[in-house]
Amino acid sequence: MRIIAGKYKGTRIQTINESSTRPMMSKAREGIFNSLQNSFEGSLVLDLYAGSGSLGIESLSRNASFVTFVDSSIECKKVIMKNLSNLDNNYTFLLLKVSEYIQQSNQQFNIIFYDPPFSLSTNEVNNDLNSIKNLMKTSSKLVIHRHKSSDQFVYPDGLELYREKKYGQSNITILEK
User: Is the CB of residue 65 less than 8 Å from the CB of residue 92?
Assistant: First the structure.
């Protein structure tokens, strides 16, 4: 996998070799970043269920000012740190369960990536989304990645559909506050 655009365009990103983690298809990543192309300059980004860090790293490549990566896997942390080792940017990695982070954090972000395991129940997704909305600044975007056959989640109050598209097995929904 490679970074699509920006100052690190073409840089290889190592992925996770775990059955519970799946990298997002490059076509889906490209669709997301094309939809949000003017949103990254100087933004604060939150990458939940960060995996290999590809979404947050792509954001840094496009001049996000700071990215917070959250994942509970030590293997994900190792891969993300390796992927970030040659990049000159501001970031932090938090080795935490996403549900704990979103319930405890009081920081707010311009762009939030929410890419939970496809096996996460719709009820858990709905609970997470209701907590995540409190982490969103005004006019911010929430990018949600689910399997195309997953049950539809409920849009939290105060968030509206910005864009939705299917890419292979992936359904990408972007909500705006």
Answer: no
> 165: number of CA atoms within 13 Å, CB side?
13
With beta carbons less than 8 A apart as the criterion, state whether 20 and 117 touch.
yes
**Contact between residue 29 and residue 170 where contact means Cβ atoms under 8 Å apart:** no
Task: Show the beta-strand stretches assigned E in 44-129.
Answer: 44-48, 66-71, 91-95, 109-114
Query: Does the pLDDT of residue 111 top 90, yes or no?
Result: yes
CB contact burial 55-79 (16+ within 10 A = b; e otherwise): bbbbbbbbebebbbbbbbbeebbeb
* Predicted confidence (pLDDT) per residue in 157-176, tens digit: 999 999 999 998 889 999 99
Contacts of 96 (CB under 8 A, 6+ apart): 70, 72
Predicted TM-score (pTM) of the model is 0.93
Whole-angstrom distance, CA of residue 70 vs CA of residue 30:
22
Beta-bridge partners for 71: 95
Residue pointed to by tokens 């490059």: 26
Which structure tokens are listed for 15?
């992925």
